[in-house]
Amino acid sequence: MSMTEFSPSIESRPTYAPLTSHGAAPAIMVADAAGAAALADLAASDSSVMDKAHVVLVAPTAEGPSQIQSLRPLAVHVTPDLDAAGPMLKQLLGTARMGTQLFLAGSEGLMGHMSALATAEGLPLDAIQMEHRGTIARRMQCVHCKGITDNVTTDPFTCSHCGLTLFVRDHFSRRLGAFQGVCVDAETPGVVPDSVEIRP
Amino acid sequence: MNKLTLEVTETQQLSPLVKRFRFEHPDGSALPLFSGGAHITVEMPEGELIRRNSYSLVSDPYDGSGYEIAVRREDTGRGGSRYMHEKVSEGDLITVSAPKNLFQLDLRAKKHILIAGGIGITPFLSQLRQLDLAQAPFELHYAARSRKEAAGLAMLPEAAHIHIHISEEGKRMDLGEILDGQPLGTHVYTCGPDGLIKAVADQAARLNWPTSSVHSEAFTAPPPGEPFEVTIASTGQKVRVKADQSLLEALEAAGIEIDYSCRGGACGRCETSVTSCEGRILHHDHWLSDDERAEQTKIMPCMSRFKGTRLELDL
């Protein structure tokens, strides 16, 4: 599976570029099962990128960890889900020095969540490399109750916290690492458009 | 532009070349608060001329009882700092702009490193008070040639994270040592001579720092130079710029209003298009890119001058 092409949208909507190597600099990499392929491509372009790399794998496939091990990174950390990956990333960021490169690969939910953690630790957003792979599901914030609903694939969708029917906007919060969902029937309660699959 | 008329309530010679001024509201009312790194633009009327220079605020950003600036006397300048040193005394009324900030801290940083060369210490004096209040980790490095010239010494608190580098005493600042091994999420801020700003940026690049973690402020007062003349495209009016006047000041004196903010070539507000140029624009700003400079189709009137036969401005 290769990198996703997203249709042009508003400025707010994040776009992603292929990961590129900065050589054997210290690195932190976070990827889900689909994103692991982007790390493999990165290592194929320059194997030295793995020399000082800590790789955090989020819910990898059964063979994922050994595939990444074969790229010979400094360390591989396996976490069951994004909630567990957060503290792991924070710990790695907390002991890293300036010059460390951060690579994120996989779903928009993963990249949004992890990049928000990293920018809160002082890393500028433009210093974070991100490559989208796999699902186009979105991490959505309900602008009304502020609850986060992960893995949203339809528009509109139901907020998992307050139950409002929310329109999937391209408006993205870098601070929260989530797209914004806005009540779709606020003016005409009950009049809700048919739910459709979101597109790239 | 939001202006304030304030009273000079204190002056203090900090070093042979640097003088501190305190301004307060004549009726004692509170002034707008600001953020660390902010500056004000001070009006210096002399005869028909009004010079305006921007100076960093050196007082506490959370203290509205007054504003303080520290002015280094530039005897080869066009007269603004000399005016402050010689003509301004306690009890005078002075017109200043409301504070503006082109050099603010990135408060998401995990740690801040402030590097000052000479009079470049001024914006950091307000920033370090803000950092202290926010209890944000920082270190400040202040480099000066000699202790006598280091006007900042009188205004800096003594603390373990405030480092003084006096080159005359053999304590030169080692940028590699300062920047190497800093925690991820550190931001560095430099104010001082262009050479220092470039040296910090180069060192940070060598250590793979993201460019957006590297901040600097270099604005200075406009330099004097040879007189020249510009033509206003819309009216054909010719405006003469004196040796000790900036182009912006000459345009203002001729009744041509241009939007401005920093008056030091840093903010980009006064950018003006050039419709005809026979000669060479002497770019002194930090705003235009190298390509834009080479094209000679834009000029920053606050800083830049001209040498040649004809310069026509799109005004």
Automatic annotation (TrEMBL), chain A:
Keyword Aminoacyl-tRNA synthetase assigned to the entry: answer is no
| Gene Ontology molecular function, alphabetical | 2 iron, 2 sulfur cluster binding; metal ion binding; oxidoreductase activity
What UniProt keywords apply to this chain's record, in alphabetical order? Answer: 2Fe-2S, Flavoprotein, Iron, Iron-sulfur, Metal-binding, Oxidoreductase
The residue ranges of the Dimethylamine monooxygenase subunit DmmA-like N-terminal domain are 9-126
Cite the InterPro entries for this sequence. DmmA-like_C, DmmA-like_N
Every copy of the Dimethylamine monooxygenase subunit DmmA-like C-terminal domain together lies at: 139-182
Protein name as catalogued: Uncharacterized protein
